[in-house]
């Protein structure tokens, strides 16, 4: 019997493209499609596909939230997170939440084929380019918990004084953390820090 695959993406054309790639893999068949995480959770409970290819960023219910819900229902669920972002924080969060693999949307067809084979065989799959990003998240330059807090306050547009008040620390300590954040992210100003933080997936200025 064919290995059943569910596609989850809020863009119909993306689902159409993925369906074409999956259909060209011997032994695989797309059996369900969802336009957001909420629909994916419901369909998974009813259909129990063998593999889920799910977008990370979707309206209403995103990929990570859907992944958590699916794994609560079925801890052994084989979910591949598919994203347009190679930001190391996105990769880390997806794998830490239980995704079996992380693929970029511009990955070649051969990579998706390798990914499906690995996941069905019970292995994890992280392409070399994505693994490099993940290594950056885990190296010694990773931001500390306090630095992440300060960075998120920066993303809200708060001054050092307001950050100090919100975080319950001295303004001088905020300045120290901001300096460290800039050094670790290779930035020379707050604007560059935020741009890099968005690229890495650490903050989302749309929310």
TrEMBL record:
GO terms for molecular function: DNA binding. One of its GO terms (biological process) is phosphorelay signal transduction system. Residues 4-120 form the Response regulatory domain. SUPFAM superfamilies: C-terminal effector domain of the bipartite response regulators, CheY-like. Gene3D superfamilies: 3.40.50.2300. This is DNA-binding response regulator. PANTHER family: TWO-COMPONENT RESPONSE REGULATOR. Keywords: DNA-binding, Phosphoprotein. The keyword Lipoprotein does not apply. Residues 136-201 form the HTH luxR-type domain. SMART domains: HTH_LUXR, REC. The modification 4-aspartylphosphate is found at residue 55.
């Amino acid at each position: 019997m064919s290995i059943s695959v569910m596609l989850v993406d809020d863009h119909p054309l993306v689902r159409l493209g993925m369906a074409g790639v999956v259909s060209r893999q011997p032994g695989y068949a797309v059996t369900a499609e969802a336009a957001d995480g909420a629909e994916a959770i419901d369909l998974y409970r009813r259909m129990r596909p063998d593999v889920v290819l799910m977008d990370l960023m979707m309206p209403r219910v995103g990929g990570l939230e859907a992944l958590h819900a699916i794994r609560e229902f079925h801890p052994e669920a084989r979910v591949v997170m598919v994203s347009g972002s190679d930001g190391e924080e996105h990769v880390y969060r997806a794998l830490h939440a239980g995704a079996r693999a992380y693929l970029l949307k511009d990955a070649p067809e051969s990579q998706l084929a390798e990914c499906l084979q690995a996941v069905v065989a019970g292995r994890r799959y992280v392409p070399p380019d994505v693994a490099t990003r993940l290594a950056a998240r885990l190296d010694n330059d990773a931001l500390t918990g306090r630095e992440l807090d300060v960075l998120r306050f920066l993303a809200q547009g708060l001054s050092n004084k307001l950050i100090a008040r919100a975080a319950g620390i001295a303004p001088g300590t905020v300045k120290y953390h901001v300096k460290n954040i800039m050094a670790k992210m290779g930035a020379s100003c707050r604007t560059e820090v935020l741009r890099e933080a968005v690229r890495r997936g650490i903050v989302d200025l749309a929310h």
